[in-house]
């Protein structure tokens, strides 16, 4: 049985890959992007099974209007995928106010506002599913990526709290946590203006990487397999709250969580000592 999906950020990367695979298997896709012309080839191939709309998720009024129109014109949307996002890298004082505002508005506020816009529709139709494309960067953190991590840790907390609130309406949630994936993520990343004080640290290394002076990060994640795993998770009757994808994501998360738990256990006596 075919289903209808609403996906943000479909012009490239995982959003594009999800759209291609869903259309190929016979589903309908409401594909949104800032550059909808990037989907012209899919529109020519699949006709009206691809519904397109121009959308910048930082424009909340536009986002609400596009969501409303998609649910109205498609009649029903079974799965909403919040995928639009990018990386902002650099030490905090290297970043401009505008860069910080844009990063938060795209990766965090945009995802929250999409959930707020779509939830009433899903509730009224008797259920559905949210899939949040997050990152293993919501469980771990690297120097030089503080604002990016702030958005990913933030969206993890948002859904951890919101998922049980909307579960009684038949709405299930999955947070997808990929590791480094062979998409154009690095090409779309933004760096703050470099300060010489950080040249020898993580931020300086990222600037040298962007300039091609040092090798890029390894990207073991296969976007085709990652997209297929995401789609398969939506086919299951019970949604996993988290979907960690990629060998690097698994390794990084298990080490970080074990270290965090060990640190908490080491402070057990102190924690109890501060009670009345």
UniProtKB/TrEMBL annotation:
One of its GO terms (molecular function) is oxidoreductase activity. It comes from the Bacteria. InterPro entries: NAD(P)-bd_dom_sf, SDR_fam, SDR_oxidoreductase. The keyword Flavoprotein does not apply. Keywords: Oxidoreductase. SUPFAM superfamilies: NAD(P)-binding Rossmann-fold domains. The keyword Oxidoreductase applies. Belongs to the short-chain dehydrogenases/reductases (SDR) family. NCBIfam families: PRK06482.1. This is Short-chain dehydrogenase/reductase. It comes from Virgisporangium aliadipatigenens. The lineage of its organism: Bacteria, Bacillati, Actinomycetota, Actinomycetes, Micromonosporales.
